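User: Let's play a game. I give you a shape written as tokens, and you guess the letters that built it. Ready? Here's round one.
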């Protein structure tokens, strides 16, 4: 994979992360609590409708978590275009450490809360960030 392809994939993943982080806000504003409720039910498999998204505490935690996901997406986009594009080693390190720290805390908390399937979904997110920078080939220096 080329570095340019990795940049494209990192930007796409960053944008997807921002959009995912906005879902709780749009659900609260638009009254689409069912979407977030379904997601919560998915994280606590089986899909049995026993999870909901209705309480004030759930909403504020979803707003905080959504804000952090938006932040992760925006920061990763900025590191991708401002650091990784010019210094792949440093950019990859910043992105990897940031995403890995999110993954460990989110996954450990999800597991303790009984939402083991969220660990599986988190692994997908982690791979979307880490695989492009792991598989990217460094740019070849142009001979002068």
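Assistant: Ready! My guess for every position:
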């Amino acid at each position: 994979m080329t570095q340019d392809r990795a940049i494209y994939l990192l930007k796409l993943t960053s944008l997807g992360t921002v959009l995912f982080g906005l879902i709780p806000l749009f659900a609260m504003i638009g009254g689409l609590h069912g979407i977030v409720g379904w997601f919560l039910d998915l994280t606590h498999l089986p899909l049995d409708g026993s999870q909901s998204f209705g309480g004030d505490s759930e909403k504020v935690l979803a707003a905080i978590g959504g804000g952090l996901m938006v932040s992760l997406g925006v920061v990763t986009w900025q590191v991708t275009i401002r650091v990784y594009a010019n210094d792949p080693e440093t950019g990859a390190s910043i992105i990897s450490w940031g995403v890995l720290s999110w993954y460990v805390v989110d996954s450990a908390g999800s597991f303790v809360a009984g939402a083991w399937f969220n660990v599986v979904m988190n692994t997908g997110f982690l791979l979307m960030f880490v695989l492009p920078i792991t598989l990217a080939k460094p740019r070849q220096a142009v001979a002068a």
